[in-house]
Amino acid sequence: MTSRSFHPPLRTLMGPGPSDVHPRVLAALARPTIGHLDPEFVAMMDDMKGLLQYAFRTRNELTLPVSAPGSAGMETCFVNLVEPGDKVIVCQNGVFGGRMKENVERCGGIPVLVQDDWGMPVDPNKLEEALTAHPDARLVAFVHAETSTGACSDVATLTRLAHAKDCLVIVDAVTSLGGSPLEVDGWEVDAVYAGSQKCLSCIPGLSPVSFGPRALEAIKRRKTRCQSWFLDLSLVMSYWGGGTKRSYHHTAPINALYALHEALVMLREEGIENAWRRHRHLHEALKAGLEALGLSFLVPEPARLPQLNAVTIPEGVDDAAVRAALLERYGLEIGAGLGALAGKVWRIGLMGQSASPRNVLFCLAALEAVLAEQKAPIARGVAVEAAQRVLAASDR
Hints:
single chain, about 400 residues, alpha/beta, Aspartate Aminotransferase, domain 2, Aspartate Aminotransferase, domain 1, 2 domains, 7-stranded mixed β-sheet, 3-stranded antiparallel β-sheet, about 40% helix, EC 2.6.1.44, SP_NH2Trfase/AEP_transaminase, Serine--pyruvate aminotransferase, EC 2.6.1.51
């Protein structure tokens, strides 16, 4: 068997991630590889830290990209902050809250679940009840933007409740960073992790994280050694610390970091608040088109994410057949439902570079064509026009 170079097809990525990657970011990947301790690379690392602080809206000194995907960012938070026997309140309203629970267990902690229906935000009243019932809890963990459902929870309120009971807070911001308002300092979040491949429009494989002063103090007071050598922040910081003197920890993914740096430069050029507004506005256009078709959303509007739209599949429609037709005929990827929502919703992403007027109109036209072939109960010929009205309103 003869192996050949791989040439992927061109796709429009409108699933739950990865998102489309801008040509500037792809071009950054092709720049010359230099050593991970080269003075020029170290200077870029320092600049990267400042760009991540801008994206997270924080001054936290311990802000860096973990050299692995968002799941490793999650583990970085838990293995450094959870010790055996620690009680951790985990709020679960989708798939990724469940992964937090498993991280607590693997660290030897004791998880206390606060559960909400999938598609609903975390209920602050339930968290407050759990905190009262478990005064010995040390941490609270929850997902800001639940990728499996498209629901957005109130970080500021949940964090305030946790701090009132002297609990640290771990926040999953994988889908929210760059796409929805996130104020790490303003909301006093202790530890937060994200991913490179969603609203930042970078390639997958890196996980920005940030740790505040309370979290750093907890790490310094640990009674046991961090169970992960690779993710032990006391070691990682010897490489990502400030200044020119860096200790070798691991060989960083140099070219991938070029790409993330370029994506963050582009976010700074656009302006973080402009990026939030862009995602919201394009969601409104997509929403108008989908509702004109006759489709509905899983998540109630006040808690609905702009960048991850969970759309209910019409009765009698073959979920897999629709997604396959979109991919094969139009080169358009949308996401399937996860867990309890498998076969019940599509997850349509509007993230980063994928959040564009062209993609909104293209998605609506392609989806209408495929659903019409399946004789789904939709209104025809109105979706694109409904979206265009919303888009045109912003141009005036």
